[in-house]
From TrEMBL:
Organism: Actinoplanes campanulatus
UniProt protein name: Phosphotransferase enzyme family protein
SUPFAM superfamilies per the UniProt record, alphabetical: Protein kinase-like (PK-like)
InterPro entries for the chain: Kinase-like_dom_sf
Length: 290
């Protein structure tokens, strides 16, 4: 996806529902430039200047209400959620700031606080009706024994070692009890002018070990020159079993390394290539140290 669909092109009942939430017709729409899902995500403004951030997509009612309640002030406040036909609509309070484009040194202390707040609030999950993230991710994983032969990764450790680690994915991750965001990257973080970070796009009713969201995020930090190992050791998850982290990295990297070689939208494949590089580089460094 290289451009977002617009609310202006959505079915009329959807546009009317948003106008009702806004208190009048939409006079301006600014689609989000970050993100990779093909759904409406727009900042909309009404005639009186009121603004809302609106997400809308076909697919029926989603879990926005319980997730927003669980996230609390980790994310923007949910104003309303509506179902119109087979469309779901979510309207959020607008947070001043911008989506993170690059992680700076000034972000790291703010990020540590977010990680600690997520641990305190999400582990164990404050809501029910969840399923293990590990199970949902299994169909997306690649078999390193096949993938490594077709597309050898740029690492020094044997591909068989990656395969052995990935084989333990469910055993290590499925028992986790924390509510899991599952897509924690810069495009799902808003930075206020004062530095505060907000986590957006809480979408899934998943559980995982509490440290898993951080492990998903760290290759994104590495892409801006930050050492993932040093940052991990500076957080509340510094004592996570090392081999559990290796299992997570091997599993995540299997998908990223496969998918970045497939045809597809340029921005998405470039992001996956970057993720694969930093996942594999970090894992190779960890395994090479023994």
């Amino acid at each position: 996806m290289d451009s977002r669909p617009l609310l202006a092109d959505a079915p009329r009942p959807v546009r009317e529902a948003v106008a009702g939430l806004l208190g009048g017709r939409v006079t301006r729409e600014e689609p989000a430039t970050a993100g990779f899902t093909p759904s409406i995500a727009s900042l909309v403004t009404g005639g009186d200047g009121r603004r809302l951030f609106v997400k809308a997509a076909p697919g029926g009612e989603g879990p926005a209400v319980p997730l927003a309640g669980a996230a609390g002030d980790l994310g923007p406040r949910l104003i309303a959620a509506r179902t119109v036909g087979d469309w779901s609509i979510e309207a959020f309070e607008v947070v001043g700031g911008d989506t993170v484009a690059h992680w700076t040194g000034d972000d790291l202390d703010h990020l540590r606080r977010v990680v600690e707040r997520m641990r305190d609030r999400m582990d164990p999950s404050p809501i029910g009706c969840t399923t293990p993230y590990a199970e949902a991710f299994v169909p997306l994983m690649a078999d390193w024994r096949v993938l490594g032969a077709a597309k050898p990764p740029p690492i020094t450790v044997p591909v068989e070692r990656l395969a052995e680690l990935a084989d333990r994915w469910l055993d290590v991750l499925a028992p986790g009890t924390a509510l899991h965001h599952g897509d924690l990257r810069r495009d799902n973080v808003i930075r206020e002018p004062g530095g505060r970070l907000w986590i957006v796009d809480w979408t899934h009713l998943w559980t995982a070990p509490g440290w898993m969201d951080l492990i998903r995020l760290l290759p994104d930090l590495a892409a801006d020159g930050h050492d993932p190992e040093l940052f991990l050791k500076s957080t509340c998850w510094h004592d996570t079993p090392a081999d559990h982290i290796d299992v997570a990295l091997a599993g995540l990297a299997s998908r990223a390394w496969r998918d970045c070689h497939l045809p597809g939208p340029y921005r998405l494949r470039r992001m996956q290539q970057e993720q694969a590089h930093h996942l594999l580089t970090w894992l190779d460094s960890r395994l090479s140290r023994g």
